[in-house]
Amino acid sequence: MAWIALCIAVVTEIVWGLSLKWVPTTTRPQLAALVPIVLSFLNMGLLAYAMRSLPAGTAYAIWTGLGSVGVAVGGMILFQDRISLPQAGFLLLILVGVVGARLTVPQQ
């Protein structure tokens, strides 16, 4: 269950990060600002729940790593953000690190 909570936390982290760029583009930014605030609470709650059972460093590394890559990809898709080839390579290295962190978690 902790891994599922962590996966949902990653998704909320990505949506939260993208919502920060979206809020100023809306016609009612004061109301839209509630979206990242609500997502922050949900995000932190899910991460805290996952950390009850998972090693804190592993959970946090996976959460931040996948969140960073997800926001970068989402920014390219939704906001036409551009990244360079070296940046894409380093994002790939983050993914390799996340997979390695997941595969080497000690079994409990």
Mean pLDDT: 94
Counted by DSSP, the helix tally is: 5
Say how many strands there are.
0
The biggest sheet, with number of strands, parallel, antiparallel or mixed sense and barrel status, is: none
Count up the domains. Answer: 1
Order of helices and strands: HHHHH
Tell me the distance between the termini: 13 Å
- List low-pLDDT spans: none
Share of β-strand residues: under 5%
Quaternary = single chain
**Relative helix content:** over 70%
Structural category is mainly alpha
Using the CA coordinates, give the radius of gyration.
15 Å
Shape: flat
Task: Outline the structure in words.
The chain has helices spanning 2-22, 29-32, 34-53, 56-79, 85-103. The protein is mainly alpha-helical and 108 residues long. The chain has one domain. The longest helix is centred in the middle third of the chain and has 24 residues, at 56-79. The chain is flat. The model has no long low-confidence stretch (mean pLDDT 94).
Give the helices and strands, then pairings.
Elements: H1 2-22, H2 29-32, H3 34-53, H4 56-79, H5 85-103
Helix pairs in contact: 1-3, 1-4, 3-4, 4-5
